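Structure, all two chains, one model.
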Amino acid sequence: MSIRQASVTAPVNIATLKYWGKRDKNLNLPTNSSISVTLSQRDLRTLTTASASPTFAEDKLWLNNKPESLDTPRTQACLADLRALRLQLEESDPQLAPMSTWKLHIVSENNFPTAAGLASSAAGFAALIYAVAKLYELPQSHTELSKIARRGSGSACRSLFGGFVAWEMGSQTDGSDSQAVEVAPLEHWPSLRAAILVVSDAKKDTPSTSGMQLTVQTSDLFQRRIEDVVPRRFDEMKKAIVAKDFAKFAELTMKDSNQFHATCLDSYPPIFYLNDTSRRIIKLVEQVNADGVVAAYTFDAGPNAVIYYDEKDESKVLGEIYKYFSGVDGWNGKKFDDVAEEQIPGVSRVILTSIGGGPQVTSESLIDEAGLPKSAKSV
Amino acid sequence: MSIRQASVTAPVNIATLKYWGKRDKNLNLPTNSSISVTLSQRDLRTLTTASASPTFAEDKLWLNNKPESLDTPRTQACLADLRALRLQLEESDPQLAPMSTWKLHIVSENNFPTAAGLASSAAGFAALIYAVAKLYELPQSHTELSKIARRGSGSACRSLFGGFVAWEMGSQTDGSDSQAVEVAPLEHWPSLRAAILVVSDAKKDTPSTSGMQLTVQTSDLFQRRIEDVVPRRFDEMKKAIVAKDFAKFAELTMKDSNQFHATCLDSYPPIFYLNDTSRRIIKLVEQVNADGVVAAYTFDAGPNAVIYYDEKDESKVLGEIYKYFSGVDGWNGKKFDDVAEEQIPGVSRVILTSIGGGPQVTSESLIDEAGLPKSAKSV
């Protein structure tokens, strides 16, 4: 019997209303709803091939050409959920191959350096879940699949959609209503752009999983954020997106990034993700926005900046960024006139990208006929 | 008629429960109560001579040998209050010289560089108010005088006492109950020490007066702090001081510093006072405290660190600080064995000091017989 396989790509998403805090650690249920923008897979994506065969002896994963364990509780939970759905299909149609009982070989590659700290786990889990779902020919909607991805990595649920995505926190204890939904598709606002400034930092502070637990347990301000501030912003941000009101969207995005980092600082011991370079980037964006808001910064659990803007303001926004970072890689031939004498140190590269679509099936496969990773050619 | 004069010194105080936010800008009424430690005047003090004479043509001030304006609303409010109290005395005893109608010459000097960003305005206003009160022979208590100092610079009210001082926010709209009181005198815990790490920063962020207004107006987390967190901490910190419970005192101090900076970051646009050097100092103190809390960091509206510890832990605390800052000035001959190969950059000097007493009358005068500043000898 031959090997069955399916290949997909999935995008990175960057939250504009931040997910920080779990109310259930096993199920990855968040303390608050969140919103993100999906980035273009031209620049940032995970490509994953999932294959199944009765000849495979065990579940195996290769990540960026290295064998990795699938034996983590989170990944196991995802695979168990997917196999259970496949089993339902098989039970209703005895003609189907009993793939739910077969072992899986999964090969996954990012087209960007994992070390850049660019939320690769979100794209990774979204691609994993979507590839296996396609392999299993599951009929479930993206929102249904998002609940499975959520168990792998919370923010992965948002990478099941393109455009603007909301992760509704839900209220059920079993997580059955904690899921991603589309706020607006890519086509609603295709001119939205993102410039990522990759900030090099000697050491990263606390990993996000333990960091968010620390915040939940020790920040006296955190309750206010999740009870009062985020629910209000969640509605306001969705409205701003639907209305394509960039200034409002940007203000909420910047405020929410700041507040997330404020609750990190209010944790005990305090967690710092922003450094002096991040701080200078914030001031730079304030400078860009001096005559009207055309750019929005946001920072995840690390010092990298993502700056959103609309294509029509490109020369203004990128021109000002270029001034202070003209010397780094990633401008792809773009040039602007002004270069400041004193460049801002601490940024290793810029990634120019844009809003993008959701996961896609692809004909590019990473697995050969023997069910093993093809050579390292695409890395 | 000869010139009358009085000279006093007043101390710097460093808040352990932070004052940040005014509910009345004119009266300097705070949004929350605060607590501070008064530092020793051996190391940090303002010396002020106040003189009055019917021959003086106008109120005049010299600050660190430079003429400065007394014509600010805050200083005028302080002088008006003091003159009103003097006038009451004169009205009850016609023998008294009518100093309330005479102009004042005031000369003031710090024994530390003003530019170091060390809350010099608190010591300055406390010394000004106390010197004029002594000149006027006012019978008012230090708590009564603290209300006048408060109008000059909020935190100045706490410099009217030594030891541990509480500024009770009060509830009256006229500010009549917003005043400083002693929590415990110097003698209660004389072994408390403070190491100040003066952090050099290119540019200071927002001045504190406008910064705190911005936080009050824009931080969504700020209300939680002042309504819920600070009232609880105010009681807990007073208890920890009375019990000489250093670990508890330290934890509250560090948490409150972090939370103050968190509300700054939650302001819009965000305010940053901590920089990467401050952040490394926080990590260093965490390292010192790994086996038990013996040191407490706190940061005001700037990157300078003040680290409190008890004398008995000096070798542990200073030894660890010395490791990373052995090359800077201010160790006064103190030496420790370990010096790290990689020193932490960004600190220009260390000031080793301790808890200290309140304002004092001194025989040292800064004004000559003509009512003018003596030569620059003491600078």
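Helices of chain A lie at 73-92, 120-135, 142-152, 208-218, 222-242, 246-265, 276-288, 314-325.
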